[in-house]
Design a protein that fits this description.
The protein has 440 residues and is of the alpha/beta class. Helix content is 35%, strand content 10%. The strands form 2 sheets. It has a 9-stranded mixed β-sheet. A two-stranded antiparallel ribbon has the order 2-6.
């Protein structure tokens, strides 16, 4: 059985072409609908991982009053987007398998030709779940682990039991072998205390029948600064990091496992952010100023970082949390509406996150004033420019977003991340190879 991808019919291709034109022109009101949706099916988690913002964000507190799970009637409000969506991520900060409707949501999307990706901690996954995911047509499962040994895993992922995670991981691997899907990846956040175990993570992936390992960067989330300081990769001698990466790459090649290190990619964006922060502000022509923009806001805009890319998330994606709030991305706290509200409750103009989610004439972002510098590729599998070759970072809505999940934060504030996390600078020296891209 082949691994499903998005069914690129006429409606989806037409939407890509329309979005290409909107993005290239820098339009704030769009004629197209999103290519991808991030749908948080759960705002609760059974673990308390030490580096996860869900442990400190009051919106995710069980006593906050916010809905813990994405309800079926809220999911149904996304129906108008489904015919043109290419991919949906059924995930957020919470654990997706706490939502009993997860598999039915996946079935609805995959059955309509949408590529479905899910990230889980796997502790709640059973054989019947893995089988149902495969039969539903889910394309990819990523399991967040952070430690290939019980000691490391349980020290980082509080409340997690290594044997329970391993049971779920093996169930997913078994379904992968039986049905050829979903593809199975392990995700590990690089820390001072676990980087030496990266080669063991590669071996674990091969053992359970997984496809590859993602090595992510550690974020300095508000409220978790002390943990980030203690676990910063910059605390490890660079030669030891180099040795772990080299050994892991050797073992991956020998075992037929893919290894994707995002450390170099994060450092690349952080470096661009540093360079832009010290560069003189560009002169802004009157033509590029939004009509009616207050002088103070315009001055602030001119002083902002000047980077050689334009974030495509506001044009290409929609982010829906478990409470039904709709945003352009998970880093943007501005809500454009709520799917629980009656259609038109926020006015007659439908936005990117319009309350009816139809996206007709949707607003790409508040205050969008300048055209992007990079034209959108018109394929969801466009090759990315080679890093270090003078090409801008991939920013078109058609670019593969799996590679930008970690780098997205660095793109939005590369200079701040580099200042907060010296490990990004270390990464330039220890991982010089081109960041790999997941195979289609």
């Amino acid at each position: 059985m082949s691994i499903p991808g998005p069914s690129m019919d006429a409606a989806r291709w037409s939407n890509v072409a329309a979005l290409d034109a909107d993005y290239a022109a820098g339009r704030a009101r769009l004629s197209a609908t999103p290519l991808e949706a991030y749908v948080e099916v759960s705002a609760r988690c059974n673990l308390r991982c030490r580096m996860c913002p869900i442990t400190v964000d009051p919106r995710y507190d069980p006593h906050s009053g916010t809905p813990p799970l994405l309800a079926g009637d809220v999911f149904e409000r996304l129906e108008p987007l489904i015919p043109t969506l290419q991919r949906v991520y059924l995930q957020g900060l919470g654990e997706p398998f706490l939502n009993r409707d997860l598999i039915s949501y996946a079935e609805r999307l995959a059955g309509a030709g949408v590529e479905v990706w899910i990230t889980t901690n796997a502790t709640l996954v059973r054989d019947e779940h893995a089988e149902a995911l495969a039969l539903a047509g889910v394309a990819r499962m990523t399991v967040s682990i952070d430690g290939p040994t019980a000691a490391t895993y349980e020290r980082i992922r509080i409340r997690g039991k290594f044997d329970q995670m391993l049971r779920g991981l093996r169930a997913l691997g078994g379904a992968r072998r039986r049905h050829g899907r979903p593809r199975l990846f392990l995700s590990m956040i690089a820390m001072a205390s676990n980087i030496a175990e990266l080669p063991l993570m590669v071996e674990l992936c091969a053992e359970v029948g997984g496809d590859g390992v993602f090595l992510e960067g550690l974020y300095d989330w508000p409220g978790l600064e002390e943990f980030s300081r203690l676990e910063n990769l910059g605390r490890v001698p660079p030669e030891r990091v180099r040795e772990a990466l080299a050994d892991a790459h050797r073992r991956a090649a020998a075992l037929g496992v893919q290894l994707y290190s995002r450390l170099g990619e994060l450092a690349l964006f952080a470096g661009r952010g540093e360079a832009a922060e010290t560069a003189p502000a560009r002169a802004t022509s009157t033509a590029s100023t939004a009509p009616g923009m207050p002088p103070a806001a315009e001055s602030s805009r001119r002083a902002a970082l000047v980077l050689p890319w334009a974030c495509s998330e506001p044009w290409a994606t929609v982010n829906v949390n478990a409470a039904g709030d709709v945003r352009t991305c998970c880093f943007n706290d501005q809500s454009f509406g709520n799917l629980r509200e009656p259609a038109g409750a926020r006015g007659t103009g439908r936005t990117a996150a319009g309350s009816d989610a139809r996206g007709r004439g949707r607003t790409a972002r508040a205050g969008a004033t300048t055209a992007p510098r990079i034209r959108l590729p018109v394929t969801s599998h466009a090759p990315a420019p080679r890093a270090g070759a003078g090409s801008p970072a991939p920013a078109g809505p058609g670019a593969r977003r799996a590679d930008r999940r970690a780098a997205g934060g660095a793109r939005r504030d590369g200079a701040a991340m580099a200042a907060a996390d010296p490990s990004l600078r270390v990464a330039r020296a220890v991982d010089g190879r081109q960041p790999a891209r997941p195979a289609p």
